[in-house]
Predict the structure.
Amino acid sequence: MAGPVRVCPECGRQFEFSDPAWRCCGVPMRLAAPPAAPVPLGQLAGRPLTTWRYAEALGVPARWWQPATLGEGITPLLPAGDGISVKVEYASPTLSFKDRGVVLLLAQALAAGASRVIADSSGNAGTAVAAYSARVGLPAEIFVPSSTSPKKIAQVRAHGAVVNLVPGNREATAAAAISAVESGGAFYASHVYNPVFHLGTATYAFEVWEQLGGRLPDTFVLPVGNGTLVLGVTRAVAGLLAAGLIPSAPRIVAVQAANCAPLAAAWRAGSSMPLAVDASPTIAEGIAIAAPARGAEILAAVDEFATVTEEQVLAGRSELARKGWYVEDTAAVCWAAARAAGGSWGEVVVPLSGAGLKTGWTPASPA
Ligand SMILES: [Zn+2]
């Protein structure tokens, strides 16, 4: 077993796990196949309480993931009222769901024999790459927008990574990182371009399936910027369906901030490509992506899009805090959308994707 294979959707060329190539024909690669299914429920008992209890589904040899793991996964799933359950993803080693995918990127860096790592991020993926690079002993250079929350930047630096603050939007940050990668010598730990990341986020759905006793909810409500969680969950659903472990696919609802919603706008217009939008700043910094590189892929994978206003995000964050969950702004978007849907999506699971301690916080006045 040599690890998951990537494929270029344009020319069909396949790339082994140990190949550090990060794009082909100018477009992001995809996984050659959806993850295999986890072993049956009865056989999961007694396994490690991390995502690696699904090791067969991920297909990455232990010699590469074992040095990289920080014990990610198996986050709490709890009912929170109104038919909505929350999955507490900020109970992860670096306080966000990105750990699920980043552990696989660093496993791949080891497989590729990398000597250093570059990543770009709106914040949380960068902190995760910095931590997991430290774990495997590789120097890391992280590019983030200069507007990124100071606490996330401090977290990156604490792990010993070099921080490059890039003026402008998230796209400018990606361009700066890609330019550094192209100059040679570094492994590009990209959660946007590298589909191996989606194998990691697939474990979010595997866990929900296991925690609900071998079934999925009616609806997954997921945040979408670059689609890292959406694309993992939809691939996990494909794997579970193919193995006959679920009878039908749940509804996938993706949520964007109304101030930056190129995918929701496309969905409403019936377009298969993201629309060019005049994005305004949003407090949901983790999903502020005006031109998602995998836009068409996300639009094909999602059943329905929703948007939330800045006021709804703040109110949702306050509401969650009053229930005991202290999240960052971006992590309140799915809760806010599910509350606004008023039960029309049936039984819903939403992720609390990142910790409140990562950003500043001003409580909203109750609506
Ligand atoms: Zn190609």
